[in-house]
Amino acid sequence: MAISSSFIAIVSLALLLGSVNAQLSTNFYSSSCPKLFSTVKSTVQSAISKEARMGASLLRLFFHDCFVNGCDGSILLDDTSNFIGEKNAVPNRNSARGFDVVDNIKSAVEKACPGVVSCADILAVASRDSVAILGGPNWNVKLGRRDARTASQAAANNSIPPPTSNLNQLISRFNNLGLSTRDMVALAGSHTIGQARCTSFRARIYNETNIDSSFANSRRSNCPRTSGSGDNNLAPLDIQTPTKFENNYYKNLLQNRGLLHSDQQLFNGGSTDSIVRTYSNSESTFNSDFAAAMIKMGDISPLTGSNGEVRKNCRKVN
User: Where is this site: Transition state stabilizer (predicted)?
Assistant: First the structure.
């Protein structure tokens, strides 16, 4: 039987794509950097011991990295005289933090195995460790990413869903990245830890009606109505346990106590209400879905093989 050249081309392409995907693996550094996991975890543990909020900040960095041209460490690049990175994009300016902790992790990893582990992979491991240290699930992180030599402020402005997003916008943005609606609701549970700035929730606590009145009043005490006043004042995304990773976030949504507009959109008479109910009733279901969704998010457009580089300093290209 004759095999057409087009069939051979399709098989070759499939093998090529398979080999690219196969380059991300949980044992990627098992021989080249056997102390990677213990080195990262001890540095993350130290940072969280100093400031519990840092776990949420490192997790957020990974989200904001992956959502902009894939998980490639681009968010970590500093601006230079001839290069504008992502740190001053609207979703990151005055709010993305933890870069010094990433520097500390990188220098510790460089001592253990110089020039081997990418900053993109360090971010992936640090976000997993942050969740686990704060009481959340653990999972096997797939590794083998390389670091981008460029970044895009415009892509950061357009790719990261703002706190004003409605449900359809959230679903669409996640779907575009290969993440399902259920993945989106699970990943939103990262808001069970961390803090938000007054600018992110001011409109919700003063203008929206699907909000618990006592909750809104308590938040107003630290977030004045006037724009420009108290903009950087912080409030916990999960009012009960902002430094413990569990399912209280979803329980709050059932009571109209979502801090951000985008949070409460997940439970507002729409298609995701039932998923929120499931996670509020079963922490184990949330944990397993969250871990699976984090692994999927980590698969977004990684640079592998000869693409990108392994940065010596996470803030600048080699």
Answer: 60
